[in-house]
Amino acid sequence: MKIVRTITEMQEQMQKLKSEGKTIGYVPTMGFLHEGHISLMKNARPENDIVVLSIFVNPLQFGPSEDLDAYPRDFDRDHKIAETEGVDFIFYPSAEEMYPGNASVKVSVVERTDVLCGKSRPGHFDGVATVLFKLFNIIQPTRAYFGLKDAQQVAVVDGMIRDFNFPIQLIPVETVREEDGLAKSSRNVYLNHEERIQAVELSKSLKMAKLAIENGERNPDEIVGSMKNHINENTTGTVDYIEIYSYPELERLKTLKGKVIIALAVKFSKARLIDNTILEVE
């Protein structure tokens, strides 16, 4: 496995491999790897000749109230995990390498961002799109792997790939879950014992919604109301949002049809958990 720290070297390596007809699978991360990242690497490995992992804590996607310096970092640990998963290259640039001066062009995401978590993080997805635009040009992947735990990010990347004609296949990867159904997250460690027991009700509420749709319910307000009642009655958490949209367009629906996402966020005492399910509605 090779660690590359400069854009020039990374581009040279990727161009050489592509000229040899190699396929490149790409997993973008901000490091401090967890089971979700490992799942992306495990999906990428058998589908590509070369697997590239990037580790870059992107300052552009941090808001004024979010502490960039406090973001957890452990490159040695990440390196060992990547090696175990058969990664061929780690692209590990500095902020100065990625953003050497003031940008003359900005990337602005105009759709799919004013709902779900994006509603409370203005400008966040502009930062995500900007860094991915650069990383896609540097690495030139055949396939790019993103976790559906952050389904809104996947939707934004889907739009960016389409709008800017990147020759990249987007591979969404299912959310990794605990045995009881709770979506795995680094935030789960901040739940106290009682909250951890209650947290499974989030995924249960999504299963209830899916069952209601299978039984013929098509009114999104009815489903959202039932989910809110279930979470309020079975947890001490506070519902931040429960929303249903078309996917990946993230547009409101009066009646459920086609591909939809049901997404939620719930605040516990020291952790805000998100989860979602995506399904086809006949």
Automatic annotation (TrEMBL):
User: Where is this chain's protein located in or outside the cell?
Assistant: Cytoplasm
Q: Write down the EC number.
A: 6.3.2.1
Pathway, according to UniProt? Answer: Cofactor biosynthesis; (R)-pantothenate biosynthesis; (R)-pantothenate from (R)-pantoate and beta-alanine: step 1/1
CDD domains reported for this sequence: PanC
Which keywords does the record carry? ATP-binding, Cytoplasm, Ligase, Nucleotide-binding, Pantothenate biosynthesis
State one Pfam family annotation: Pantoate_ligase
GO terms, molecular function: ligase activity
- Per UniProt, where does beta-alanine bind? 61
Q: Which InterPro entries match?
A: Pantoate_ligase, Pantoate_ligase_C, Rossmann-like_a/b/a_fold
Coiled-coil stretches, from where to where? none
Q: What class of enzyme is it?
A: ligase
Residues that bind ATP: 30-37, 147-150, 176, 184-187
Residue numbers binding (R)-pantoate: 61, 153
What's its catalytic activity? (R)-pantoate + beta-alanine + ATP = (R)-pantothenate + AMP + diphosphate + H(+)
Do you know which SUPFAM superfamilies this protein is assigned to? Nucleotidylyl transferase
Query: Which residues carry out catalysis?
Result: 37
Its subunit composition reads: Homodimer.
Q: Which family does it belong to?
A: Belongs to the pantothenate synthetase family.
Something else the entry says is:
The reaction proceeds by a bi uni uni bi ping pong mechanism.
Biological role: Catalyzes the condensation of pantoate with beta-alanine in an ATP-dependent reaction via a pantoyl-adenylate intermediate.
Mind telling me which PANTHER family this protein's record contains?
Answer: CYTIDYLATE KINASE/PANTOATE-BETA-ALANINE LIGASE, PANTOATE--BETA-ALANINE LIGASE
Name the chain's protein.
Pantothenate synthetase
Higher taxonomy = Bacteria, Bacillati, Bacillota, Bacilli, Bacillales
